[in-house]
């Protein structure tokens, strides 16, 4: 138990190449419990690949991922999710032909009726849990302002509404750590501030975040600490102000968006 | 030993037929990004068209073949445009596209059955007397198949490397989005690909029918799984991989035929399973394309 | 009357069998989005297994050869047929589900079907080769003293009971989080995995379950017809079951039963009594063109089929069921 000093998420020398492209090259960084940690970098820096490696959708070539003091490197995505490591995708990945509330309900952890056997035999317990989950899902829809859309199919939602739905799923899934891949992409400024406050509230309720985001305004508002990636490598990390001072960052990233 | 050499000889013949078929299938698979389950029936239709031209229209076999290849290029492109086009434009999921090609397979097969009936037919061709090459026995027909296939492969190579449409086909096959961004419109490329697919399918079908010395409406369908094995072995969308896959599958089937003649084609399935388990990206590895 | 009754009873029995098959395929294709292009091979496995378990040893001097010949009493052959078909379905699934593309599963199933066909045809020792097995006795017929030409009198009730059972299982799945999770796999496998669903195991389970149901349908077929041979499981047969599912309403169990009534009861059984025109193969060929054409048209103009996917919501405090409709062509980017 010497590892009790490990942060909630610890990425150690993780590497992933696609053919000749080193998308993530021996990256190490971490996210400590309770924080909202930013991950920024120019297009193609390897941010989404890093999220895929942490979430388990991608298998790294080498390196380790530690989550909640466990080495999850060899775990498949679903097992990491069950341990409380949830993610969103850069392109929203709702289940299009399921209703909004079904999308949220699906994220509920440890559902009794999720195997064939229990669906046939444990119907009463299943129903009781489902009613509980239903209540919680309706509550979350209200929180995220989606109540009116409850019974609509998810594909009918607008881009911003889909982002809200993804956050609602993360909350429903009782995440410990949420990896958000550009949650503000395609979101109007009005909705943007609402999503920011949602993320704050979720943080207050005990969820930690790794937030991939291009908009430094958003990053500045939410993140206490920012990691900068470029060309697959971690350039530097620190507060947003510290990072702005960094010469390489200015050249590689901020220079572009000046 | 002599038996083995002979088997390798037959293997080259099978590989030649298979290469024609597999290159046609993999080009389309790569460019359109879905598998075509009607491919076997397109082959068969090409065979029956050729046969009808030789028997009903009394054309010389070679001329009939050329006419059929051209006609099938047009028919295939038209059917793909008319039937697959609307689904693709609507962005139907792959599952639906696969179902549509499956339905097309049934329809084409039924058309063949309705027009030509269920019985076997055969091309009457000269050149069935085997020639000796040391321990190797091959008929002039078989040699023509090998030669024709090599010529076709070279032509495909030139098409893909020297012509604009060929280069665009490769670009779309490698990365559809990137190709679109660089200003390549997929529609003409897709049409050209289907036409080439129809042409190659006809060549492959006729070679298969001639080599097997008879054919029936089930000809292409029964062979389709072997073609798929070669395609996946070579890596989907990779014509050179398909040629290599065809060579491997062709040789393996004929060598296995030494011991298990009635199951020789089924070995292709074993190859397929092994590839899927061990090397799903195909023999020629590629980045991110699975 | 006396001539019409057997005709209708036979058609009815086939509809029951196809309703069972459609429910099984619907679990795979309609609910989970698995493309299994050799579904009918599992029907064949069920038919052969049930056949050789019901039959005794091949009579000496008959020239027949097949394995087992155990003479087992009803309903053991049906149960074992389901188990064996499910087992093979699972084995096939194991080799392909690790791959991302749905094409690969479709291709592999098609190949496996062709190979199974070759093996059954060529190894005569297995199921008597091209001639197949025949003379399979109807279960319970002797118990109830039913004459051989009226076997439907016992098989229709048996079939209805099995159909009710299969329907009940599928219905429970529809009502449960399990069914919802399967649909999520259909709608987006990566997202399902990202929310803790073990997609590999779930798909494997559905493959086993669906193929086991196919096996049951096969067992009923062989006990009804009394015979089964390779010509009975060509690729067309799989397409016919797909047609029932797609025309009826993928994802909806009542819909696919309706589809089975339409495709098997009306089109196929009906076409049997059409006059022969031209060559013998002409009428079936035209019938298949019609089925293929209908499937393609429905996929385009009415992807929900006759009855769209509707499902009652489990957790709703008992107020109502939700009618859920899909838009045309928007079944999601389930594929990567
Ligand atoms: N599946 C893949 N196959 C091949 N190359 C890939 C794949 N995924 C990512 N890459 C490459 O890896 C590099 C990093 O991509 P990634 O998507 O991680 O960047 P990113 O930082 O998320 O960029 P953006 O800000 O544009 O989202 C890019 O060069 C990309 O082309
Ligand atoms: Mg990204």
Summarize the structure.
The complex is a heterotrimer of chains A (258), B (290) and C (336). With 290 residues, chain B is mainly alpha-helical. Chain B is built from eleven helices and two strands, in the order H-H-H-H-E-E-H-H-H-H-H-H-H.
Cα separation of the termini of chain C: 56 Å
Biggest sheet of chain C, in brief?
none
Strand content of chain B: under 5%
How many extended strands of chain B? 2
What's the shape of chain C? globular
Strand content of chain C: under 5%
Question: What ligand species are in this complex?
Answer: adenosine-5'-triphosphate, magnesium ion
For the record, give the distance between the C-alpha atoms at the N and C termini of chain B, rounded to a whole number. 40 Å
Q: Which sequence of strands runs across the widest sheet of chain B?
A: 1-2
Distinct helical segment count of chain B: 11
Q: How does this structure look, described?
A:
- The complex is a heterotrimer of chains A (about 260), B (about 290) and C (about 325).
- With about 260 residues, chain A is α/β, with parallel strands linked by helices.
- Chain A has two domains: about 10-95 and about 175-255, P-loop containing nucleotide triphosphate hydrolases (Rossmann fold, 3-Layer(aba) Sandwich); about 100-155, no CATH class.
- Helices cover about 40% and strands about 25% of the residues of chain A.
- Chain A has helices spanning about 45-55, 75-80, 100-105, 115-120, 125-145, 160-170, 190-205, 215-220, 240-245, 245-255; strands at about 10-20, 20-30, 35-40, 60-65, 70, 85, 175-180, 210, 225-230, 235-240.
- Chain A has a six-stranded mixed sheet with strand order 6-7-8-3-9-10, with helices on both faces. In chain A, strands 2-1-4-5 form a four-stranded antiparallel sheet, covered by helices on one side.
- The mean pLDDT of chain A is about 90.
- By secondary structure, chain B is mainly alpha-helical.
- Chain B has a single domain, classed as ABC transporter involved in vitamin B12 uptake, BtuC (Orthogonal Bundle), CATH 1.10.3470.
- Chain B has a two-stranded antiparallel sheet.
- Chain B is globular, with a radius of gyration of 19 Å.
- With about 325 residues, chain C is mainly α.
- Helix content of chain C is about 65%, strand content about 0%.
- The longest helix of chain C is centred in the N-terminal third of the chain and has 28 residues, at about 5-30.
- Chain C is globular and about 60 Å long.
- The relative contact order of chain C is 0.18.
- Chains B and C meet through helix 3, helix 4, helix 9 and helix 11 of B and helix 4, helix 11 and helix 13 of C.
- The structure holds adenosine-5'-triphosphate and magnesium ion.
């Amino acid at each position: 138990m010497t590892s009790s000093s490990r942060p909630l998420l610890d990425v150690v020398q993780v590497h992933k190449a696609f053919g000749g492209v080193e998308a993530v090259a021996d990256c190490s960084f971490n996210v400590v419990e309770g924080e909202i940690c930013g991950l920024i970098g120019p297009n193609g820096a390897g941010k989404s690949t890093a999220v895929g490696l942490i979430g388990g959708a991608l298998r790294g070539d080498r390196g380790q991922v530690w989550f909640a003091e466990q080495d999850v490197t060899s775990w498949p995505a679903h097992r990491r999710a069950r341990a409380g490591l949830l993610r969103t995708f850069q392109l929203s990945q709702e289940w299009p032909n399921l209703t909004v509330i079904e999308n949220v309900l699906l994220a509920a952890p440890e559902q009794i009726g999720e195997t064939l056997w229990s669906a046939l035999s444990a119907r009463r317990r299943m129903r009781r849990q489902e009613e509980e989950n239903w209540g919680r899902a309706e509550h979350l829809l209200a929180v995220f302002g989606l109540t009116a859309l409850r019974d609509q199919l998810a594909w009918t939602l607008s881009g911003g509404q889909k982002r809200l739905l993804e956050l609602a799923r993360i909350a429903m899934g009782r995440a410990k750590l949420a990896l958000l891949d550009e949650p503000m992409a395609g979101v109007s400024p009005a909705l943007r501030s609402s999503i920011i406050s949602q993320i704050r509230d979720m943080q207050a309720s005990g969820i930690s975040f790794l937030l991939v985001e291009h908009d430094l305004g958003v990053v500045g508002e939410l993140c206490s600490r920012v990691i900068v990636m470029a060309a697959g490598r971690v350039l530097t990390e620190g507060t947003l102000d510290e990072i702005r001072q960094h010469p390489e960052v200015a050249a590689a990233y901020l220079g572009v968006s000046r | 030993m002599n038996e083995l050499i002979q088997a390798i000889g037959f293997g080259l013949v099978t590989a030649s037929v298979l290469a024609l078929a597999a290159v046609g299938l993999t080009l389309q698979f790569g460019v359109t990004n879905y598998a075509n389950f009607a491919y076997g029936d397109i082959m068969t239709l090409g065979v029956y068209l050729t046969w009808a031209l030789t028997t009903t229209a009394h054309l010389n076999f070679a001329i009939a073949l050329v006419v059929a290849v051209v006609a099938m290029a047009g028919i295939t492109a038209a059917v793909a445009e008319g039937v697959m086009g609307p689904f693709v434009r609507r962005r139907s999921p792959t599952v639906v596209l696969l179902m549509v090609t499956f339905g097309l397979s049934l329809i084409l097969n039924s058309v063949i059955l309705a027009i030509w009936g269920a019985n076997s037919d055969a091309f009457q061709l000269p050149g069935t007397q085997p020639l000796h090459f040391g321990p190797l026995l091959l008929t002039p027909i078989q040699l023509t198949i090998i030669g024709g296939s090599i010529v076709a492969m070279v032509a495909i190579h030139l098409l893909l490397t020297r012509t604009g449409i060929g280069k665009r086909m490769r670009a779309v096959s490698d990365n559809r989005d990137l190709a679109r961004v660089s200003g390549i419109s997929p529609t003409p490329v897709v049409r050209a690909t289907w036409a080439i697919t129809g042409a190659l399918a006809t060549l492959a079908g006729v070679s298969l029918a001639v080599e097997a010395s008879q054919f029936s409406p089930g000809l292409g369908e029964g062979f389709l799984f072997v073609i798929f094995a070669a395609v996946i072995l070579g890596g989907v969308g990779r014509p050179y991989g398909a040629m290599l896959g065809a060579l491997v599958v062709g040789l393996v089937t004929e060598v296995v035929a030494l011991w298990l003649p009635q199951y020789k084609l089924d070995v292709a399935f074993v190859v397929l399973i092994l590839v899927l388990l061990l090397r799903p990206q195909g023999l020629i590895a590629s980045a991110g394309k699975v | 009357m006396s001539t019409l009754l057997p005709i209708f009873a036979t058609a009815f029995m086939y509809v029951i069998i196809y309703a069972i098959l459609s429910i099984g395929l619907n679990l795979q294709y309609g609910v989970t989005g698995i493309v299994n292009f050799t579904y009918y091979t599992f029907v064949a496995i069920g038919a052969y297994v049930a056949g050789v378990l019901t039959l005794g040893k091949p009579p000496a001097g008959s020239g027949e050869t097949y394995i087992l010949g155990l003479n087992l009493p009803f309903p053991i052959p049906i149960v074992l047929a389901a188990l064996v078909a499910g087992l093979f379905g699972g084995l096939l699934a194991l080799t392909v589900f690790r791959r991302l593309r749905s094409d690969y599963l479709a291709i592999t199933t098609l190949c496996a079907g062709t190979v199974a066909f070759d093996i059954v045809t060529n190894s005569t020792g297995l199921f008597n080769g091209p001639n197949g097995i025949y003379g399979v006795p109807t279960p319970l017929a002797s118990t109830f003293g039913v004459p051989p030409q009226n076997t439907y009198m016992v098989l229709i009730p048996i079939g209805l009971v099995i159909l009710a059972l299969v329907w009940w299982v599928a219905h429970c799945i529809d009502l449960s989080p399990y069914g919802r999770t399967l649909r999520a796999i259909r709608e987006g496998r990566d997202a399902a995995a990202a929310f803790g669903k073990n997609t590999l195991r779930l798909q494997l389970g559905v493959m086993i379950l669906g193929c086991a149901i196919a096996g049951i349908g096969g067992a009923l077929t062989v006990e009804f017809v009394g015979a089964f041979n390779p010509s009975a499981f060509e690729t067309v047969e799989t397409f016919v079951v797909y047609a029932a599912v797609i025309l009826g309403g993928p994802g909806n169990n009542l819909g696919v039963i309706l589809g089975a009534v339409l495709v098997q009861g009306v089109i196929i059984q009906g076409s049997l009594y059409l006059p022969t025109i031209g060559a013998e193969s002409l009428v079936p060929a035209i019938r298949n063109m019609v089925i293929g054409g209908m499937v393609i048209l429905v996929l385009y103009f009415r992807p929900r089929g006759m009855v769209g996917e509707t499902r009652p919501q489990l957790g709703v405090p008992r107020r109502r069921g939700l009618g859920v409709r899909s838009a045309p062509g928007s079944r999601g980017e389930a594929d990567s």
